[in-house]
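User: Could you write out the 3D structure of this protein bound to magnesium ion? I've included everything you need below.
Assistant: Certainly. Input first, then the structure.
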Amino acid sequence: MQSDIDRILYHETTILSRLDEMAHTIAKDYEDKELTVVSILNGSFIFMADLLRRIPLPLQIDSWSVSSYHGTKSKGHIEFRQNSIADVIGRHVLILDDILDSGLTLRAIKDRLEAESGAASIRSCVLLRKKLQCEAATVADYIGFEIPDEFVVGYGLDYNERYRNLPYIGVLKEEAIRRHAR
Ligand code: IMP
Ligand code: MG
């Protein structure tokens, strides 16, 4: 698994110290507010666990299972795998996702929350944002790291469901992309 990585972008210690900073900002922004975190699975499961343990607020959690990617390309539309969403009427919602690429996933999630949830506010937080040639479909309010437009895996992020359990974030070798294509 490690030999499929071209280079490491962020080691676990670097990620965790960035999460300390992000958690501090988020905790200040949501102090005295009723917060529900909507985390987008599977990609954000490690990010969610590490970030939320650093936020000392009485928050609630809803996890959504969503899929938008096939291989290394966004399909352009997303599938929600559950029908009902948690009751967040009058609450402040913070969406957590692993990475903002085209922005289509986050846009669709925000649209659904805006249409159906009755939330008092909706913001988003991503661990990674890719620097793209063209503009993304939406912006994120909290961003961990800006990365180049390359395919990355680890720390929750996958390529065709592999590599999620790598403890760091790394760029996948072209050769591994071809070998595990489907
Ligand atoms: P978007 O809809 O194009 O912004 O894509 C967002 C989703 O695609 C994320 O939630 C990830 O699951 C996945 N994704 C985008 N870029 C990468 C990547 O470089 N590695 C792994 N997954 C990615
Ligand atoms: Mg994925």
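The chain has one domain: 13-147.
User: Perfect, thank you.
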